[in-house]
Amino acid sequence: MSKKGDPPNLRNNRPAIGLLGRANSLLQVVRWTLWGFCTFATLTFLMQPVSVTAQLLLSISVVVAMLVTWSLGRGRVFRFLFLGLGSAVAIRYLYWRITTTLPSSDEPLALFIGLLLLGAELYCVFILTISVIVNADPLKRPDAKRGDERDLPTVDVFIPTYNEEFSVLALTVASARSLDYPPDKFTVWLLDDGGSDQKCSDKDEAKAAAARERRAMLQALCRDLGARYSTRARNEHAKAGNLNAGLAKSTGEIVVVFDADHAPFRSFLRETVGEFAKDPKLFLVQTPHVFLNPDPIERNLQTFARMPSENEMFYAETQRGLDKWDGSFFCGSAALLRRAALEEAGGFSGVTITEDCETAFELHSKGWHSAYIDKPLIAGLQPDSFIEFIGQRSRWCQGMFQILMLKNPAFKKGLSLVQRLAYLSSMAFWFFPIPRLIFMFAPLLHIFFDIKIFVANIDEAIAFTLGYMVVNIMLQNYLYGKVRWPWVSELYEYAQGVYLAKAIVSVVWSPRKPTFNVTAKGQALDNNHLSPMAWPFIVIFLLLTAAVVTAAYRYAFEPGVSSLMLVVGLWAMFNLVIAGVALGVVAERSQPDRFPRLKINRSAHLVVGRSKAEVIVTNVSAEACSVALDAESFKKLNLMNGEAQLIVDQADTRREFVPIPLRLAREPVRQGDSVALGFQYKDPSARAFWAIADLMYGDATPLWRFLQSRRKHMDVFRGTFQFLIWSVIGPARAFAYGYIPLLQAIRTAFKFKNAGQVPAEPHIAAQGLGATNLLARSRPALAAPAIDADEWIRDLLVVARAYADEAASFAAVPQRDLRSIAPARGPGKRDWLAAMLQRAATKVSSSFASHRSGTA
C-alpha cells in the first residue's frame, strides 16, 4: 500500500521492489543452507577414523595437491582451493588431537597439563582459521580522485606530543605544513601535553621550568612554521584526552592524526581525502605505518635492509583483508577521520589505553564504514632498545585486552558477524604469550619428570602432527611469504611473550589499571651490550639445552623409554633453535646514529664562503645529511673550517626555502670520480626545517622502492636455513657481549696487580645485566686497554689448552692414586671433585698468567 507522500514512480514500483526484496531474502536463505550442508558433509567426511598409513597418504597427497595448485597461479579460484586443501588437513589433525591423544583420567596431573597444551593448540587453530577467512581475498582499492579543489573538505591535522625532541617535532610539523592541499583548507595543530598547565605548575620546580621552556619553544616553532599551538589544563585520559581537546578547538570536516615522530609525505592528502566523497558514512581512511629505522630485533639480527619488517604483514595483508569485510581499524596515526562520526561517538574513546582501535570499534558498531589505502605515505620511528620495544608492545597488548574484557566484540550490538570475528581475532591475538610459553615448557615436563603431556607414537606423530605442521607453514608462506619470512612469527612471539605474559596477568586481574606510557624514540646505543632484560632468555636457553641433552641420553641409553621421548626431544630442539635466535635478539648492537637516514637522490647546491657547487643529496635524517659531488668541484671548495650551507632545489614551490646550515661531520671520502661528504645540521632555524622536510618527505617514491626491494618471496627451505644460522650466531654473540667485558675487567685487574697498582672499583654498566654482573667494567679513571676479537680468542685457547692438559694428566693417573689428591677427611666423590677442580684452577691460572706476561 503506497503512502500519500511517496513520489509517483515509487508508488508505482513499490510492489516490484517488495517482491525483489523477498526474492533476495529467499536467495540468502538458500545460499546459507547450501553452505551449511556442504560444511556438515565435509566435516563428516574428515572425521571418519582411518589408519595411520591412510592418514600419512592423505597428508602427502594434500601437500602435493597444494604444491600443484601453488604452481598454477595465485588467482582467486586457486587461492580458495589452496586454502581449502590446507584446512582439510588442519581439521583432520584437530579431530585426532581431541579424540585420541589426551592422557588418561587415571593420571589427573598429566590430563590437566594435556588439556592446557590442547587449549594452546586450539587457540592457534582459532587464530589460523580467522586469518584464513579474513585474508582469503584481500581488497586492493583503486586510486581515489581528489576532485575539484573548491569541493574539497576542510582538514585539521593533529600532531599530539608529550616529550619528543625538538628536531623530531620540527620535522613533522614542517612536513605537515608542506602537504599538497589548498592552504586555506587545512590547519596544522601541535597538541602539546608536555607543556600543559599541570606540567608547568608541577611541585618540582625543575620539572615545571622545563615544561614552561618547552611550551615557549614549541609556541615559537609553530609561529615560524605557520601551525597552531594548543595545550590544555590537565593531562587527563592521555592521548585520547589530548586529541579530544584539539577536537573542541578546531572545526575541520576531516581530522588527520599523525604521531609526533610520523612525518607525512607531501602526497598524503592527495592520495586519501577523495575516499570521503565516495561514501558519506565513511568515518576512517587508514594508511600503513612505515618506519625509517629497524626495531631492536631487526637491528640485532641485521635484517632491516633485506627482510620485511614485522608490521608489514599486518599493513600489507591483514588490513587489506579486514578492509574486504569493512573491518580495517584506526591505528592511532597516519589516518583521516570524519568529524561528524567522531562527534556522534563523543570524540576519541579513552576508556582503554588503545584509544585508536577502541574508537574504530565504537564507530563500526554505530554503522559507520572504514577504508584502508595500502600506500606508504608517512615515515616514522620505531623503539631503539629492546626495553622500549617490550614497553610499547605491553601497552598494545594490555589495551587490546581491555577492549576484549570491557567491550567484548562478541556481544557488541551493530557489528556484522565477520566484523565480530575480525575484532575478536585482533584482540585475542595478543593472548599469544601464554600458548607460546606453554609450547616452550611443555616438553620439559616429559623429559625431566616423565609426565605424559599427550599420547602418541612416532608413526602417528609423523602422519598427523608433521603433516599438520607442514601444511601450516605452507599456508603461512603462501599468504604472507613476501612480507614474513618463515619462523619469524615464532621468534617475535617468543621474544615478546616472556615479558608480555606478565602484562596479560596484570590486565586480567585489574582491567582498568593499565596507564598510557609514551615510547621513547631516537636513542643512541653507544656500545654492544646485553639487554638488561636478557637474563630470562639465558636461563630458558640453558634449560632447553639441558632438556635436549637429557632427552637424547634417555632415548639412547635408558631402558623402557618409548618413542614419545624422541618426539618430545625433537620438539625441545625446535624450541632451542628459537631460544638461540632470541639470544641474538637481546644482544644489542651499537647504534651511533640517533635518527635514521632515508636514502634519496635530490639535487642541491653546496655553498662554502663565496664558492658554490652542484651536489646530489644521497641521504638525509632529522640531524644530518650526506652529499656527493664531482672531484673537480670539491677541489674548488675551501672546507677548512668545516662549515657550509645547503640550498635545496625544492619540490614545494609555494614558499622560499632558507639555506640549511651545515657542519662537516667526517672526513671526505673519495669514490671514483666523486667525493662523498657527511654533514650535521648546525643549529638550523625553524624555517630551515622546510627544506629538510622537503628533502625527506617531498617524494614517497624512494621509500616505496625500498619496501618493494625487501618484499621478495622467501621460501620455507631458505628461510629455515637462515633461521638455523641465526640460532648458532645468536648464543655466540650473547656470550661475547657478556663475557668480553668481564674478561677485560679481569685482565685489567691482572695488569694492575703486576704493576703494583690498585685497580679501580668495577661497576655495572648502565645498559648491562644488573645483578648478574656480566657487564662489569672499570671506571674511566683507570680505563682498561681495548680488547679485540683475535686477542680474546687467543686467551680462550690458552685457557682451553690448560684445562685439556690438566684433564689429560688426570687421565694418566691410575685410579688408586687419585685418592692421594683428595682431602684427608675422606675419598668421597664431592671431596675428590673439589680437589681436582682446585688443582685444575691453579694450573690454568698459572698458564694464563704466563701467557699474558709474554704478550703484555
Written account of the structure:
With 856 residues, the protein is α+β, with helices and mostly antiparallel strands. Helices cover 54% and strands 11% of the residues. It has 27 helices and 20 strands. The protein has a seven-stranded mixed sheet with strand order 3-2-1-4-7-6-8, sandwiched between helices. A six-stranded antiparallel β-barrel has the order 12-13-14-18-16-15. Strand 17 and strand 18 (674-681) form a beta hairpin. The relative contact order is 0.08. Mean pLDDT is 84; it is low at 1-5, 756-790 and 815-830.
Characteristics:
856 residues; six-stranded antiparallel β-barrel; 27 helices; globular
Lateral arrangement of strands in the main beta sheet: 3-2-1-4-7-6-8
3D shape: globular
Residue runs with pLDDT of under 50 for 5 or more positions: 1-5, 756-790, 815-830
Distance between the termini: 106 Å
Write the layout of secondary structure elements.
Layout (H helix, E strand, L loop, with lengths): L7 H39 L5 H21 L3 H25 L7 H27 L20 E7 L4 H12 L8 E7 L4 H4 L4 H21 L2 E3 L7 H12 L4 E4 L5 E2 L3 H5 L2 H4 L3 E5 L9 H6 L10 H13 L10 E4 H6 L10 H11 L3 E4 L5 E2 L6 H21 L10 H12 L4 H17 L8 H23 L7 H22 L19 E2 L4 H23 L6 H23 E2 L9 E11 L2 E10 L3 E7 H5 L7 E6 L11 E5 L4 E3 L2 E8 L6 H10 L3 H10 L5 H39 L8 E2 L11 E2 L11 H24 L16 H27 L1
Helix pairs in contact: 2-3, 2-18, 3-4, 3-18, 4-16, 4-17, 5-7, 5-23, 15-16, 15-19, 17-19, 17-20, 17-21, 19-21, 20-21, 21-25, 26-27
